[in-house]
Design a protein that fits this description.
Elements: H1 5-13, E1 18-22, H2 26-34, E2 39-42, H3 46-49, H4 61-74, E3 79-83, H5 93-105, E4 111-113, H6 121-129, E5 134-139, H7 145-148, H8 157-173, E6 177-181, H9 185-194, E7 199-202, E8 210-213, H10 215-219, H11 236-253, H12 267-276
Parallel strand pairs: 1-2, 1-8, 2-3, 3-4, 4-5, 5-6, 6-7, 7-8
Bound molecules: 3-methyl-2-oxobutanoic acid.
Length: 277
């Protein structure tokens, strides 16, 4: 049975932490899903870690839908959340509803994520009242990075109060979970203790109800740079380099492909063929 938003709430209510990961393609989604991870986020980090853009503002609805479709084909159990790209939901709630529905109907996701706190509460309400589960996202919100800068948010009293209000506004508006990115550990705990729904931290310390990471960061695929909030558990880029080097070397020295990688025809057929030529 697929994980539901109620299952996630039950995990928070029982005090059980859970892990969330991003995925952008079918094979990765299959692996994560088979490992029983309850939530897969098709993050708009797709822009940076897969498509090579230098900001998430460049990724489009079509690109997000294309990758979300691949992930939903691979994920049989996990709740798949499609990340709504820049300006697909900020303009007005009606456009947000139309675009969110595309993630469910065309791409097969079960929920969407949007960035922003109080300012997005009305939109969250419109979507959730119409049956679309919404994950909120506060703190450092990459779609606003040109304005807020890529830095820890909520260090001052005023900013911290604002983030608590943002989280409460999303909770009251019906969000089923709230991503809390790059905020001090103490503030993430205050937020986690004060809202009903699960907080999902990234760069927000260990006291959130769940954690999310960009898969390329934990597997070491994308660059040699590891963000401070991430930990590289393996370095797949090295394994990939080794694999590619091995393949090229064997092609060049003629040892690949070996007989077992090909097929052969009957001698008589070959003889007849050569006669005609
Ligand atoms: O786009 C993304 O991957 C995200 C997560 C980092 C939360 O928004």
């Amino acid at each position: 049975m697929r994980v539901s938003v109620q299952d996630l709430q039950a995990l928070k209510d029982r005090g059980e932490r859970f892990a969330v990961l991003t995925a952008y393609d079918y094979p990765t989604a299959r692996i994560i899903d088979e490992l029983g991870i309850p939530v897969i986020l098709v993050g708009d980090s797709l822009a940076n870690v897969v498509l090579g853009y230098d900001s998430t503002v460049f990724v489009t609805m079509d690109e997000m839908l294309h990758h979300t479709k691949a992930v939903t084909r691979g994920a049989k159990q996990a709740l798949v959340v499609g990340d709504m790209p820049f300006m697909s939901y900020q303009t007005n709630p009606a456009d947000a509803l139309t675009n969110a529905a595309r993630f469910l109907r065309e791409a097969g996701a079960q929920a969407v994520k949007i960035e922003g706190g109080e300012v997005m509460a009305e939109t969250v309400r419109v979507l959730t009242d119409r049956g679309i589960p919404v994950m909120g996202h506060i703190g450092y919100t990459p779609q606003s990075s040109y304005k807020i800068g890529r830095r820890v948010q909520g260090r001052s009293l005023e900013d911290a109060r604002k983030l608590v209000r943002d989280a409460q506004a999303l909770d009251e508006a019906g969000a089923f979970a709230v991503v809390v990115e790059l905020v001090p550990t103490e503030l993430a705990k205050v937020i986690t203790d004060r809202i009903k729904v699960p907080t999902i931290g990234i760069g927000a310390g260990p006291d959130c109800d769940a954690q999310v990471q960009v898969i390329s960061d934990i597997l070491g695929i994308y660059t040699d740079f590891v963000p401070r909030h991430a930990k590289r558990f393996v370095k797949l880029a090295d394994a990939m380099r080794e694999g590619v080097k091995g393949y090229v070397a064997e092609v060049m020295d003629g040892s690949f492909p070996a007989p077992e990688h090909g097929s052969s025809m009957e001698e008589e057929v070959l003889r007849e063929l050569l006669k005609d030529l």
